Amino acid sequence: MLLTRVPIPASAGSVDPARAAALYPVVGAAIGAIVAGVAVGSGELWPVLIAATLAVATEVALTGALHLDGLADCADGLAGRDREHRLQIMKDHSIGVYAASTLVLHLLLKVAALSTLLHALPPEEMLLLLIGVYAASRGAMLPLARLLPYARVEGTGRGVVQRLGTRQMMTGLALVIVALAAAVRVHPWVALLMALVAVLTTLAIGLLAHRRIGGVTGDVLGACAELTLLIMLLAGVAVLA
């Protein structure tokens, strides 16, 4: 219900969002499998650039551009003059030049990375790689939610950030490790490199958010998912292409 636009029975809304957060990597793995399926299937009909574009479009539709919205808000807001001004900008639904530029460049790089990997890898390896990358990108939100305070008085991410326990975080990270282990079949160094860049990217985002707004928000968590995903894809391209 939170990470995708897949129709879910209303009764699922009674589940504690902090407890459910442990399964973020499972949702990410499912998204990665779908994106890989669209990329590989489209690649049988069209050139890899078109196939990669359709795969990214599928991800946007499947997730409702939720994390992209967070990335855009952070791009505009973190450049504000002080903490309150930054949080105010991030809450504003209008898109500024920083947000627009960030979204365009981010999507271009994602399409370019996927098209390069689609050209370099057989279908099975593409599937395993994207399952690992997407699982890790969703799991990357958990350490930020657990270790940093919520920066607002109210907000959509408050329930997860304030109630997420160490047990849920560790469960989610264990699932990330399982998903990344599948990438070992693609290339021995890929899983290690992707894990390393995911950790460094998450750490950098956490430090920046703590310094600029004193904690995290739902937008910061979404931006973390998107940026971690992109950096991991670029790392894969560096090794495999």
TrEMBL record:
Cofactor dependency: Mg(2+)
BP GO annotations: cobalamin biosynthetic process
First-tier enzyme category under EC: transferase
GO cellular component: plasma membrane
Pathway where it operates: Cofactor biosynthesis; adenosylcobalamin biosynthesis; adenosylcobalamin from cob(II)yrinate a,c-diamide: step 7/7
Catalytic activity: alpha-ribazole 5'-phosphate + adenosylcob(III)inamide-GDP = adenosylcob(III)alamin 5'-phosphate + GMP + H(+); alpha-ribazole + adenosylcob(III)inamide-GDP = adenosylcob(III)alamin + GMP + H(+)
Keywords in alphabetical order: Cell membrane, Cobalamin biosynthesis, Magnesium, Membrane, Transferase, Transmembrane, Transmembrane helix
Mode of membrane association: Multi-pass membrane protein
Subcellular location: Cell membrane
One Pfam match: CobS
EC number per UniProt: 2.7.8.26
GO MF entry, a single one: adenosylcobinamide-GDP ribazoletransferase activity
NCBIfam families: cobS
Family: Belongs to the CobS family.
Name listed for the protein in its UniProt record: Adenosylcobinamide-GDP ribazoletransferase
Encoding gene (name): cobS
